[in-house]
Design goal:
By secondary structure, this protein is mainly beta. 13% of the residues lie in helices and 53% in strands. It is elongated and about 60 Å long. It starts with 5 loop residues before the first strand and ends in a 6-residue tail after the last strand. The mean pLDDT is 82.
Length: 111
Amino acid sequence: MSGEEPTKLQRTESGARVIKTKEFLRTSVAEGPFCLLDSAVKNGTRVFIQSRYNKSLVATVVAFDKHFNLVLRDAVELTMVNNEQKERSIRNMFLRGASVVFIVRLPQSAV
């Protein structure tokens, strides 16, 4: 990657514009769907994660990526089995983004 070579062509009303590699890689997580995860990582806020197969988690987010893969700490897994809720504590875990349905920030009083 010696020079800045075009990585993608983006069409606009005024014609085509070349996006340089550095510009393309500059992304902000302060806005959009990742802002909740970014603030949870920075502030240490606990989140509620609904995942597939009727499982949910309450945990602290340590890290995340653009695929919603999550590294979690002090997680509590909640599962419904035969109309009975079961809890399991997990110290550290990796949750694959494909299994994440939605994420909600918990209020401080619920922690």
